[in-house]
Amino acid sequence: MPAYTLVVHLYAKNDCIDKVKAKLQEASQVYSKDKECLSWFVMQDHKDSQAFTIVERYAHESSQKYHLENPYWKTFDGYVIPLLDKDMELHRYNELDTNEEVRVEKDPELWKAVEKHQTY
Question: In what order do the strands lie in the sheet with 37-44?
């Protein structure tokens, strides 16, 4: 079954970038170990240092319960929200199942060339 993913965009106040960055790094270290958490990545925009993105991947939508029950969760919003220049944007996704091969492109020569760029 494909994973359930949350993507959160945050925009730090200019004088709070380091505080937001540190809290996100800490949160990733905590949440990455939660039950049914597949990954919890934090990123900072390479051009706009105030812009951050969190990508949370869970085994199922219901897996969020472990995240929300983690005592650390109660520390997050109270710390981060006052450091932001705008509201957090939260997007929810169901990942597409890519276990079965899909071939939209029909050119066999293309697929031979593609294989040369792959590592498996």
Answer: 37-44, 51-58, 4-11, 89-94
User: The tokens 């597949």 sit on which residue?
Assistant: 38
pTM for this model (two decimals): 0.89
**In this predicted structure, what is the pLDDT of residue 119?**
85
Instruction: Show Cβ contacts of residue 64 under 8 Å, excluding neighbours closer than 6 positions.
Output: 4, 6, 58
Q: How far apart are CA 14 and CA 84, in angstroms?
A: 9
Q: What is the amino acid identity at position 85?
A: D
Nearest to 42 by CA among 9, 18, 90: 9
